[in-house]
Amino acid sequence: MTQTLIKNGQVLVGKQLLATDVLFDQDKIVAVGKNLTAEKVIDATRLVVAPGFVDAHVHLRQPGQTAKEDIASGTLAAAHGGYTTVCAMANVTPVPNTAAQLSKMCQLNRQHGRIRVLQYAPVTVDLTTEQLTDFAAMKQAGAFALSNDGHGIQAAQTMAQACQEAVKFDLMLAAHAQDDSLFDQGVINQGEVAQQLNVRGIPASSETVQVARDLLLAAQTGVHYHVCHISTKETVELIRQAKKRGVKVTCEVTPHHLLLTEQQITSQSATNYKMNPPLRTSTDQEALLAGLQDGTIDMIATDHAPHTVADKAGSLTQAAFGITGSETAFNMLYTQLVRSGKLTLTQLLLLLSTKPAAALGLSDVGQILPGKRADLVLLDLNAQRSLQEQDFLSKGKNTPFTGETVWGQTVATIAAGQVVYRQK
Ligand SMILES: [Zn+2]
């Protein structure tokens, strides 16, 4: 018997923070309440105890790009950020086009992951062709869902076929919505700032045109269509209306699209503000927040995209797209959205844990209840610090949030009953 009791914390139970205790035995929560006892006790006085966070969107870069990140460093970084489940995209080298390759990736995830890693399979061969992968075999090999993240699916016929096949095998289809003809080698949002800096702009329509198309196809087929990292006001509205019509659609927003706009991009060297989709306008930012408030947006996901220093060097046009996110998501959102009164603490915690778990169909996590996995995060909201590069456990240091003063520190992260991160 190795029971552990987390005592004296403020615990997220359902949609409420309660002064109560949590007892877990090995990898499962066995009781929530007062007057519980155990040999091993973790004192959570003045700490918030939440379900371990669930990130629907990370890039772990293994195999093939391990100078940027690997499964061990990426999952350790996630644990530092309070995550106990991450969903890894398939844009690694080589792309796992076959069931054998995907099965090997799942094995690597289990072997090196400090927390649970769920693996996306590519929708089409090499993520860029119009040839579907073998969905049945991918599911058999351990795929939790499908995504060509990094690339939009260009031909409508391919998307239609993908929807039909995904329904057959009960696989979620997660879309990086991007019409390449409209994207047209853009670098940052099409608008004022792109003009001032004389770089190519990415119009909002490169996202919205595909989302509109895909929502029609999703409605026809009944597939679970998930939209990655939505960035525009129009996308929020399209999804809001589709949900009203009963389309099985979910979506995510990133911390950076909630916290930043194109106005932060002030020079050619501001490459840590370059990501895809790009930072948009304050009107878009407000619409994203409204989408969180009214439930149109189901979850916050980081799109953690670690890169080497060399990858992010040079001008806006030259640098790679993407920023890290695992280790800054909670503290930045808590500091800038909760402490300013734009979201409540429970809203934020739910958007990082219970809501993504529910939307992704992960019934064993996301709630602190007897029978659920002992996936928990202990947070100190009163701890203030400045985000420093040397504190990041990710190999990627490419974040615009370095130097920010934040509140909200991960004190410990427990995954399947094991302490996988502890504050030093
Ligand atoms: Zn993407």
From TrEMBL:
Query: Gene3D superfamilies, per this entry?
Result: Metal-dependent hydrolases
Amino acids binding substrate: H59, L60, R61, N91, N276, H307, F321, G322
Classification lineage: Bacteria, Bacillati, Bacillota, Bacilli, Lactobacillales
Q: What is this protein called?
A: Dihydroorotase
Ordered alphabetically, the record's keywords are: Hydrolase, Metal-binding, Pyrimidine biosynthesis, Zinc
Cofactor binding: number and manner: Binds 2 Zn(2+) ions per subunit.
Q: Which parts of the sequence bind Zn(2+) 2?
A: D149, H176, H229
Q: Coiled-coil segments, which residues?
A: none
Give the NCBIfam families listed for this entry.
Answer: PRK09357.1-2, pyrC_multi
